[in-house]
Amino acid sequence: MIFATIGKRGHMTVTLSPDQERRLADVVRAGAYQNAEQVLGRALEMLLAQEEWLAENRDEIAAAIELGFAEAERGELIDGDEVRSRMAARKKAWMAEKRSV
Fold first, then answer.
1. Residue 39 contacts by C-beta under 8 Å, 6 or more apart in sequence?
2. What's the CA angle centered on 2, arms 51 and 26, to 5 degrees?
């Protein structure tokens, strides 16, 4: 659990669990970030971007869920092996696209 308090000057003190502290230190040690503030700043940016994307795409997500639910009710299901195969193909295509950029 994270506890945060804001002081008189607007600075925030955050208390992390031992696991969160270890994970944060591991990220800094990996070298992509110079300090915990950079890691937390990037994490916050990513969280806000994800929430913005979800808000912008809420209707499409709900429609896809409804479509999938209706297909399942009609018995139009895909077994786990087929799902894994399709996901692997999508990942392979995505990785190839990223390499070509």
1. 24, 27, 28, 33
2. 85
Which residues does the chain have with pLDDT short of 50? none
Contact 33, 43 (CB under 8 A): no
Q: What is the token pair recorded at 3?
A: 């506890």
Q: Where are the domains of the chain?
A: 1-40, 57-101
The residues, any chain, with a CB within 8 Å of residue 40's CB and separated by 6 or more, are 14, 24
| DSSP 8-state code for residue 77 | -
Q: What is the DSSP string of 2-65?
A: -EEEE-TTS-EEEE--HHHHHHHHHHHHHTS-SSHHHHHHHHHHHHHHHHHHHHHTHHHHHHHH
